[in-house]
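Standup notes
- HV: blocked on the assembly model, inputs below
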Amino acid sequence: MAEGPRVVICGGGAIGAATAYFLARRGARPIVVERHQVGGAASGKSGGFLALDWCRGSPLDALARRSFALHAALAQETGDVWGYRRLTTYGGYAVEGEPRGSGGLPWVADGVSITGRLGTPETTALVEPRAYTRGLMRAAEALGATLRTGAVVDLVREEGAVRGVVLADDDTIEGDAVVIAMGPWSILAARWLPMPPVFGYKGHSLIFKTGDAIGAEALFLEYQEAATGETLTPELFARADGTTWVCAISSTGPLPLDPGAVAPDDGAHTRLEKLCRAISPALAAAPIVARQACFRPVTQDGLPLIGAVPGVPGAYVATGHSVWGMLNSPATGEAMAELILDGAAQQVDLAAFDPGRLRPLDPKRLSDG
Ligand SMILES: Cc1cc2nc3c(=O)[nH]c(=O)nc-3n(C[C@H](O)[C@H](O)[C@H](O)COP(=O)(O)OP(=O)(O)OC[C@H]3O[C@@H](n4cnc5c(N)ncnc54)[C@H](O)[C@@H]3O)c2cc1C
């Protein structure tokens, strides 16, 4: 039997792992090149929250709906090693220092008002994002994919087409196609390809060991901070492994070249911890097991780049998924596999995500750092 095409995927986040999985399932030979750790960036540190219909009315709707269905199927097919669970999701508000709210959930503080249900177990779900990303990569490897550690620093070209990547140690990996899936670090590819810019937007999170104090629930809150008067929008997700993940406080801090060097902003975790202890006695009593910071990849128009790089045979990109990269990873991986192997995506129309819709970044605007 003829061997499937070799596809080099730059980046072992959720998007790279899902692309490898769907390519391997179709008989191709994906090689994921990861500079730091699989799931070591946003894909391992994010919330992992999934919603069926929260992208309705936007060009992301079909991608999100297909992804939501694929998440349920993947969890079943792979033996659910990443704690997939359905959730009931609530919205509410609180004003710091005001002790009385309307309450509504047994684990929230008296000062919190729960204003409504935003999602049901039919429409909202959760994965533990690091286990999901690593689990998908392992599932891809079981189907014939390969994982290489290395930093991609350039592309191999042959008669105008891209035919592989060059690593920092000068080694090369050849392939029939290359996919740029380096999250916010995809901006580096603007040196090698006519690609629009991708930016990093930093977020901070804490993980508490809450045991069974919080049920299969999520909470999106508006929280007015007393000291700053600022309204923060914490998100809280109770995971199947007995931990609870909470995020708030974003910033535009600079993206370090090395994904292993991402650090929190000064004081951000202290501020977030104070908020968490105030909104829930269950969080107030729980030890913190991780303090995290990571960068979500964003584009100029807020939509991902998913498709072929215009004018460069063999070059593809899948990045810029912003706040919905965990949700939208399976349908993105599936669409990339269809695009590369069949010439067009079948399940989801990728027209709105065409990388050619945005002006390429002038590589002179990238510093040497
Ligand atoms: C605080 C926060 C909470 C979030 N919560 C959610 C959520 O609840 N639900 C949701 O759907 N989305 C969420 N997101 C968004 C989601 O995390 C991202 O959209 C998603 O992780 C992006 O995945 P990625 O694979 O594109 O990028 P990354 O996860 O950034 O992966 C890129 C990979 O490329 C590697 N890399 C970098 N440079 C090189 C190089 N030169 N060579 C080789 N490899 C390289 C990196 O090491 C990294 O592993 C959240 C994001 C943040 C910041």
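- HV (later): unblocked. The two ends are 46 Å apart (CA to CA). Helices lie at 14-25, 42-45, 61-77, 129-142, 268-279, 281-284, 325-342.
- Next: hand off to the docking folks.
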